[in-house]
Amino acid sequence: MNFRKIVELEKYLDVAHHIPGRIRIKFSPLILTKPVALAAMKEHSELPDAIKDARVNMSARSVVVEYDSEQIQPELVEELIQGTDKDKKAQIISDLYGRLMSNG
């Protein structure tokens, strides 16, 4: 999973719970019929160090992502998943990768 995949999969995702630094994302059972999408949910190699952990729970159909809320503003995380403005999402992704990936 990476920020771009999160946006690509947005129609299957919904925020179940979010506090700064930790978000639980529920995913639709429809994603289970799409092997490429499912594999993307499990892959975490392209995430910046500001993402501390990402765990997929297949039985609960959820992903818990723990992140450094000082480096990634919580409202940006929700915008990536629930926002409707694709240009704004593209800008957020560009900003996050430009800022977070150059630190490592």
Could you explain the architecture of this structure?
The structure is a single chain. This protein is of the alpha+beta class and 104 residues long. It has helices spanning 3-8, 35-42, 74-82, 86-100, and strands spanning 13-19, 22-27, 51-57, 62-67. It has a four-stranded antiparallel β-sheet with strand order 1-2-4-3, with helices on one face. The radius of gyration is 13 Å and the shape is globular.
Keywords:
104 residues; alpha+beta; four-stranded antiparallel β-sheet; 4 helices
List the SSEs and their pairings.
Layout: H1 3-8, E1 13-19, E2 22-27, H2 35-42, E3 51-57, E4 62-67, H3 74-82, H4 86-100
Antiparallel strand pairs: 1-2, 2-4, 3-4
Mean of residue pLDDT values: 85
Strand fraction = 25-35%
Q: Give the CA-based shape.
A: globular
Q: How is the main sheet built?
A: 4 strands, antiparallel
Structural class determined from secondary elements? alpha+beta
How would you spell out the order of helices and strands? HEEHEEHH
Rg from Cα? 13 Å
Helix content: 25-40%
Could you tell me the number of beta strands?
A: 4
Treating each run of at least 4 consecutive H or I residues as one helix, how many helices? 4
Distance between the termini: 18 Å
Q: Short summary of the structure?
A:
By secondary structure, the protein is an alpha+beta fold. It is 37% helix and 25% strand.
